[in-house]
Amino acid sequence: MLELVSLAGMLELVSLAGMLELVSFAGMLELVSFAGMLELVSLAGMLELVSLAGMLELVSLAGMLELVSLAGMLELVSFAGMLELVSLAGMLELVSLAGMLELVSLAGMLELVSFAGMLELVSLAGMLELVSLAGMLELVSLAGMLEFVSLAGMLEFVSLAGMLELVSFAGMLELVSFAGMLELVSLAGMLELVSLAGMLELVSLAGMLELVSFAGMLELVSFAGMLELVSFAGMLELVSFAGMLELVSLAGMLELVSLAGMLELVPLAGMLELVSFAGMLELVSLAGMLELVSFAGMLELVSLAGMLELVSLAGMLELVSLVELFVVEFVSFLETVSFLRKVNATTEPIPNRAKQNRVTYKLLRSFLLNAGSIILVGTFVVHIYKTIF
What is the pLDDT of residues 315-332, one digit of tens each? Predict the structure, then answer.
């Protein structure tokens, strides 16, 4: 049952009914076998092998290399703590090289790669992926739906199935897009663009330039509050340059132009026009029918379809109706001539024919002088009018 063999204390063999066997060579080599189930091999403590019915195996070379296998299910390999591999039936795998490189795989579903904490990759069945390079670059992807990229907090990109996108470069440039509907671009708060499906757009350059467009209907442009333009479907337009120049147009019907309150022009479909230059010169025209011209209250001209005209120069000279006055003078002349003829017909003949001719001459001269005055004044007024305009 029990056998012991010893050769000068160098070699020892112990066998208990073939069940337990121990072999020792000067304490250097030891082999223990229990019915073939458990085996231990040790070479001066340098190499150790443990096997439990082929299920569990351990190999150690001076603590440098270790291998553990449980029926091929779990395997661990360690080389001086530098390289470690853990495998659970091919499901979970871990590889570590002195803590520098680590790989974790759970049946190909979850994978983690880390190189000295610098580069990390996490993948869950290709659904979620994370890449980090020393905290500098990060990428997160959820089945291509959500993506996030960060470069040391400088550049960030977020995408949700192409619906929502955000790009930020050190907080300087930001872009937000939701299915191409809403877009925002900001460059350090200097330039901002907002677009809602191409309907509403806002552009701001450090608060200096602003543009608002709603489906091309309403547009506003402002440059540091100096220049402003408002357009509503091309119907209403307003232009203001530092409050100096203003233009208002309602479908081309009404237009107002003001230059620092000095010059103003209002046409209503070409019917009504008003021109004012610092309150000095004013012109009002209603379809060419009524016209009023005033120059510092000195010269005024009113015309109603060319029929009635009034000219006043500082209240000194007034001319009413050039046409009418000419006609009145001419009629007066004809009436005078007719009256003289009647007098001649009812009275005795005038012996002195020369005296009659002198009377006729004086009447004709008076008419010509009046008509000439009218023509001269009218020409003067027209000349002033053309000179002004």
Answer: 555 555 555 555 666 666
253 domain-assigned = yes
Per-residue pLDDT tens over the stretch 6-37: 556 655 555 655 555 555 555 555 555 555 55
Is the Cα dihedral 62, 65, 66, 67 positive or negative?
Answer: negative
Using CA atoms, how far residue 246 sits from 203, 279, 323, in Å, is 22, 17, 40
Region of residue 386 (left: phi > 0; alpha: psi -120 to 50; beta: else): alpha
- How many domains does the chain contain in total? 1
| Six token digits for residue 142 | 């959820």
> Is residue 177 in some structural domain?
no
Judge contact between 71 and 55, C-beta under 8 A.
Answer: yes
Can you name the residues that pair with 183 across neighbouring β-strands? 177, 195
Tokens matching residue 20: 């337990």
Residue 353 gets the label, from left (phi > 0), alpha (psi -120 to 50) or beta, of: alpha
What's the Cα-to-Cα distance from 120 to each of 10, 37, 82, 138, 201, rounded to whole Å? 55, 43, 19, 9, 41
Segments forming the whole domain that contains residue 246: 219-263
Residue 237 lies in a domain: yes
3-state secondary structure at position 203: strand
At 162, the amino acid letter reads G
Collapsed DSSP state (helix, strand, coil) of residue 228: strand
CA neighbours closer than 13 Å in the CB half-sphere of residue 272: 7
Neighbours of 293 (CB within 10 A): 21
